[in-house]
């Protein structure tokens, strides 16, 4: 269920929305970072540049003593402030300021120095990042002006941590929201799929449950239910007409056959040839078989599953089918064999399964030439069983292997040989209500019919 949920369209849609939403949040947080941390950094650079301009003007006005006085005055007002000053001689000997030596860091192309404050007395954990700019005064003196940007650095780190945390929260909440949304959508869709499978299996009375919420799924369920009502009505009408026709025609056909039988007896008494009457009786028997097959298929397709289902020993069933058809195969000189490698049991209607296997074997005998070979094998493992009926007869062209399950479809277009084209239709109807998969394969030469079905239990009896 979880694997199907991850592959569902609703989860992919929710995941796409989550990615887009996450990208939007990241873009917003990046803008906040740019508009705060970057702005603070530009403000610090502007402050340093303004101080440099002011100190340079004071030096030009009052000379070295005036500059020293201003530096000391500013440092005395805020001894622990963030401002950094260092005035040195031409050989970098400190004259005034709160640094004990000139930084070893190299200036970038714009003249800015980024270095660590390593004044004596500071703890290692108190070493902060500083940003400064230097210039040379007339007389060869060097002046360094900067600021302790610890708070700016902390702000930037806090924003970065917020970005990471916000991204994680967005992904977690988005993923959880996508999972919950997809689960709800999958639950509604699974209700539709469950009902659809029950309808496919023959229960046309099933309808899609509605929550009466007025949403799109309720509207869809309402439209599908209305469509199913109409389909059931039409199918019931067709089935009713078909059953009526079959019943109405079967009765006069039965009467016709009885009268022909009486006529045959009268002809035999008078010594006349009853061949034409026998032929008419054979035709009547064929018509009766056709109508009986149609009625049986209709009953199978409308049957509520499980009414007559029970555990069926498929090995015993196949032995009964083979025993029934062995005389017919021997009459044609055919070799008929059954091999069962396991005792396989399935939940099903034994009578219907017997009829289906009998139809398949009857077809194999009918279309296999004299002295031909027909093999039936039964195997099973885990929860799956398999029956294979193989012959070396004429086979079925690949292009027609699906069409042979249709009502009245026959490979022989002239339709001169006996048969109604309903045998495999009945097999397909039985297979459908038993969740059995039918495959027609080339046996090179001949046909191989493979029947795969779920088992209730399987016991391996192979001695090797």
List key phrases describing it.
Heat Shock Protein 90; 3 domains; Beta-Lactamase; alpha+beta; 464 residues; 8 helices; 13 strands
Do you know the CATH architecture of the largest domain? 2-Layer Sandwich
Q: What is the arithmetic mean of pLDDT?
A: 77
Q: Which strands sit side by side, in order, in the main sheet?
A: 2-1-5-4-3
Largest sheet: 5 strands, antiparallel
The whole-angstrom Rg is 47 Å
Which term fits the overall shape? Answer: rod-shaped
Low-pLDDT ranges: none
| Classification by helices and strands | alpha+beta
CATH C-level category of the largest domain: Alpha Beta
Number of structural units classed as domains? 3
Counting DSSP E segments of at least 2 residues, the number of strands comes to 13
CATH topology of the largest domain: Beta-Lactamase
- Count of discrete alpha- or pi-helical segments spanning 4 or more residues: 8
Helical residues, percent: 55-70%
Q: Terminal Cα separation, in Å?
A: 40 Å
Tell me what portion of residues adopts beta-strand conformation: 15-25%
H and E string:
HHEEEEEHHHEHEEHEEHEEE
Structural description of this entry:
The chain is an alpha+beta fold and 464 residues long. It has helices at 2-7, 9-77, 150-200, 216-270, 275-302, 314-331, 350-367, 423-433, and strands spanning 83-88, 94-97, 112-116, 129-136, 142-148, 310-313, 335-340, 342-348, 373-381, 384-391, 437-442, 447-454, 457-460. The chain has a 5-stranded antiparallel sheet with strand order 2-1-5-4-3. A 5-stranded mixed sheet has the order 7-9-10-12-11, with helices on one face. The chain is rod-shaped and about 160 Å long.
């Amino acid at each position: 269920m979880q694997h199907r949920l991850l592959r569902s369209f609703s989860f992919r849609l929710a995941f796409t929305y989550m990615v887009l939403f996450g990208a939007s949040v990241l873009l917003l947080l990046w803008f906040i970072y740019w508009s705060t941390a970057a702005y603070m950094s530009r403000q610090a650079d502007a402050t340093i540049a303004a101080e440099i301009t002011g100190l340079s003007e004071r030096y030009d006005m009052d000379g070295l003593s005036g500059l020293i006085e201003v530096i000391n005055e500013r440092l005395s007002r805020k001894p622990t402030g963030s401002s950094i000053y260092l005035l040195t001689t031409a050989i970098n000997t400190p004259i005034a300021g709160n640094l004990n030596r000139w930084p070893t860091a190299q200036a970038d192309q714009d003249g800015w120095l980024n270095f660590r404050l390593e004044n004596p007395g500071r703890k290692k954990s108190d070493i902060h990042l500083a940003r400064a700019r230097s210039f040379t005064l007339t007389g060869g003196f060097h002046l360094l002006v900067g600021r302790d940007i610890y708070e700016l650095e902390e702000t930037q780190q806090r924003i970065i941590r917020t970005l990471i945390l916000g991204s994680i929260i967005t992904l977690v909440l988005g993923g959880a929201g996508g999972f919950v949304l997809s689960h709800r959508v999958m639950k509604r869709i699974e209700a539709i799929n469950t009902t659809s499978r029950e309808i496919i299996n023959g229960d046309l009375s099933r309808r899609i449950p509605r929550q009466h919420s007025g949403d799109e799924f309720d509207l869809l369920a309402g439209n599908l239910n209305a469509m199913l009502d109409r389909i059931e009505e039409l199918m019931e009408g067709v089935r009713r007409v078909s059953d009526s026709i079959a019943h109405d025609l079967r009765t006069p056909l039965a009467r016709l056959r009885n009268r022909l039988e009486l006529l045959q007896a009268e002809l035999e008494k008078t010594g006349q040839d009853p061949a034409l009457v026998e032929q008419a009786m054979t035709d009547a028997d064929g018509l009766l078989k056709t109508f009986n097959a149609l009625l049986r298929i209709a009953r199978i397709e409308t049957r509520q599953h499980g009414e007559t289902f029970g555990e069926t020993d498929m090995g015993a069933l196949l032995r009964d089918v083979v025993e029934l058809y062995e005389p017919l195969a021997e009459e044609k000189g055919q070799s008929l064999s059954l091999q069962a490698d396991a005792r396989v049991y399935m939940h099903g209607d034994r009578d219907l399964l017997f009829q289906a296997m009998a139809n398949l074997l009857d077809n194999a005998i009918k279309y296999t030439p004299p002295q031909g070979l027909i093999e039936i094998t039964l195997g099973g493992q885990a929860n799956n069983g398999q029956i294979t009926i193989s012959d070396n007869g004429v086979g079925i062209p690949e292009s027609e292997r699906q069409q042979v399950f249709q009502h009245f479809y026959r490979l022989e277009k002239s339709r001169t040989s006996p048969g109604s084209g309903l045998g495999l239709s009945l097999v397909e109807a039985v297979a459908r209500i038993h969740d059995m998969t039918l495959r027609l394969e080339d046996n090179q030469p001949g046909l191989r019919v493979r029947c795969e079905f779920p088992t209730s239990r399987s016991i391996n009896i192979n001695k090797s």
